[in-house]
Structures are given as C-alpha cells and as structure tokens.
UniProtKB/TrEMBL annotation:
Membership in a protein family: Belongs to the peroxiredoxin family. AhpC/Prx1 subfamily.
Catalytic site positions: C51
Protein name in the entry: Thioredoxin peroxidase
Cellular component GO terms held in the UniProt record: cytosol
Function, as annotated: Thiol-specific peroxidase that catalyzes the reduction of hydrogen peroxide and organic hydroperoxides to water and alcohols, respectively. Plays a role in cell protection against oxidative stress by detoxifying peroxides.
PROSITE patterns from the UniProt entry: THIOREDOXIN_2 (PS51352)
InterPro entries: AhpC/TSA (IPR000866), Peroxiredoxin (IPR050217), Peroxiredoxin_AhpC-typ (IPR024706), Peroxiredoxin_C (IPR019479), Thioredoxin-like_sf (IPR036249), Thioredoxin_domain (IPR013766)
A biological-process GO annotation: response to oxidative stress
Length: 214
C-alpha cells in the first residue's frame, strides 16, 4: 500500500455526479487548490450495505465540513449512471437520495489504482490472458488534502470496516490548528484542547500540565 502522505495527491479528470443530479465531466480536485481542504474518500460499490451508511453520514455532517471550508468528495469504481441511479433512490429503499456532494465515477479504475486503494491487480494466467486477481473495487480509502494539494492524512479500511466521521473531522481540526497556530497535536487531541510546541520543552510542559489536570 502506497503512503501518499507528504506527496501531491494524484490528479485526475473524470465524470462526477454533483448536487445529486448533475453530470460534471472533467471533474477534478484541482478546482479546490488554494481555496479549500479536501476530504477525498473511496468506497467499494453503489447499491451495497456499509457504503450508504458512510455516504449518508458524511452528508449529515456537511454543515460542519462546510464551516471548516472542507470539500467532501466520494469515489467508487461504478459508472456515473450507477451513481445517478443510487442518488435518486430513496434511502428507505436502499438508496442515498439527498446526498449533495460530488461522487466521482472511476469505472476505468485508474483513480483507485493511482491512490493505491484498488483491492486487486491485473495479471496473466498460464495461457497469457489478462486476468484480474482480487476484487476490482476500491477499499475504504480516505485522504485529507491541504489547499496546496498535498496529502496530509490517509487511512485505508478493508471493506467490512466502516469509517468514523468524527475521526475525519478531528483530523481536519488538527491539520487546520497546526496550519494556523504552528503547534502540533498530541494523542487524542480535539478542538479546544491543549496542543504543544514541537520541542523538548514543549513536550515537557504539555506532559506536566496534563499530569496536574489529572
């Protein structure tokens, strides 16, 4: 699994469904450069079971992401027609109607491959024929990208393991706090808690204060 943290997020142009109903060709994360942080996440497939719980959970917290100036973008290896159909299926019928943020179509699997979250790979059998080993869908990858287009955080879950929206928001808070204050965020840091200077003295002061508060 590639570690993309500290590197430029792989660029792409693909069709996405935006606002739950519009096809946007040549959709790219580059539109957010210099303007917004981006939380770009992959999920395995449309019309499945764990995936809608995550996708809808992100939508339910969109006001918080927007308040923090973060664009949320989802992606799977389905077509944009599949995305459109799922987005227009009521939630009580297994759909994700009401989701407004962009869902990118990666039917060619190039985006998932470049982010190294594709759950398999192409190979050849004994007859020299091209085969796919594994599952041709994406793991649950999540990438927090800063305004310069640099990946600052990533996490990849296996397909049965749903992600925490609270943790995604916590990582946004930590990154933005560091960018503004220049202080680093220790274990279990949350917005409103004490951070520290990345020095020996800073660590000592933080641990001393923590000991007193306990």
């Amino acid at each position: 699994m590639a570690v993309l943290v500290g590197k430029k997020a792989p660029s792409f142009r693909a069709t996405a469904v935006v606002n739950g109903e519009e096809f946007e060709e040549n959709f790219s994360l580059e539109q957010y450069l210099g303007k917004k942080h981006v939380l770009f996440f992959f999920y395995p497939m449309d019309f499945t079971f764990v995936c809608p719980t995550e996708i809808i959970a992100f939508q339910e917290r969109m006001e918080e992401f927007e308040r923090k100036n973060v664009a949320v973008v989802g992606c799977s290896t389905d077509t944009h027609f599949s995305h459109f159909a799922w987005l227009n299926t009521p939630q009580d019928q297994g759909g994700i109607q009401g989701v407004q943020y962009p869902l990118v179509a990666d039917a060619a699997k190039t985006i998932a491959t470049n982010y190294d979250v594709l759950a398999g790979h192409y190979d050849y059998n004994d007859a020299g024929e091209t085969i796919f080993v594994g599952e041709p869908v994406a793991y649950r990858g999540l990438f927090l990208i800063d305004k310069e287009g640099i990946v600052r955080h990533q996490v990849v879950n296996d397909m049965p393991l749903g992600r925490s929206i609270d943790e995604a928001l916590r990582m946004v808070d930590a990154l933005q706090y560091f960018e503004v204050k220049g202080e680093v965020c220790p274990a279990n840091w949350e917005e409103g808690k004490e951070a520290m200077q990345a020095t020996k003295e800073g660590v000592s002061s933080y641990l001393a204060n923590k000991s007193v508060s306990n």
